Amino acid sequence: MSEQRVPAALHMRRQPRQQRSQEVASRIEQATLLLLQERGFAALNTNAIADRAGVGIKSLYHLYPNKEAIICRLAMGWLAAICEAQEQIRTQATSWPHVLVLLDLALEELDRRFVGYGALWHAMDLIPELHVVEQEHERRQIDFWSSLLRDFGCRWPEAELTSLVRYFYRTADVTKQCTRGDGEAGQRMWLLHRRWSEQLIAAAIAESDPARVWQARPALLTGTEVQAKAAP
User: Fold this and answer.
1) pTM for the whole thing?
2) Could you tell me if 193 and 175 are in contact, meaning their C-beta atoms sit under 8 angstroms apart?
3) What is the pLDDT along the chain (232 residues), one digit of tens a residue?
């Protein structure tokens, strides 16, 4: 997303062009991320950020108008990395299952590069001006995944394809976040979701009628229904 889409109040005051300014900006941003993890957004303030970064408050305000602008800058870096990884997936993937393998690898690499970004997303939810950033990111995600499924032969009407992709994107994001801290049990839940997503999208690629795909998907069975099915 270009900075033009970001509310003006969240723009950096100056782009750091010299190495020293870039180093100061990096220290400020990393200090913000650490404080978000430790204290949360409500307790975050620019004086604490400057102190943790080891810079003067005037140096901070020379680059950023407020703490929200720093959070926005962090978020924009993360979103740009996601888009870059996706473009690599587009050029490398040979099938839909291969896409998911490459996506898993990309997400693992992003987790290594952007440690602690969970606290950032909680902060974004509390800043109304940043909601436009999230909305624009989701729009780009829907465009990307819809285009990719078209490349693999999906012939669903546009409205139905958009709904499918939105479901895929939102559930994958939420499931990944919710299962990340649950150890082996969380990994099993993630793999279950992953297999379901692979099968669902594969069916959408193979069958041009969305109604037939929905009718063919088996319902989840409760314990008593599973026993009844298993009975001779």
Assistant:
1) 0.80
2) yes
3) 555 577 888 899 999 889 999 999 999 999 999 999 999 999 999 999 999 999 999 999 999 999 999 999 999 988 899 999 999 999 999 998 899 899 889 988 988 888 778 788 888 889 988 888 888 889 999 999 999 999 999 999 999 999 999 999 999 888 877 787 788 888 898 888 888 888 899 999 999 999 999 888 765 444 444 344 444 4
Q: What does the block give as tokens for 225? A: 């229904």
**Can you say how many angstroms the Cα of residue 7 is from the centroid of all Cα atoms in its chain?**
20
CB-count burial class (<10 Å; 0-12, 13-18, 19+) for 133: buried
Token pair, residue 77, equals 């870096």
Residue that is written with structure tokens 């049990």 in the block: 185
Q: Are 67 and 49 in contact (CB under 8 A)?
A: yes
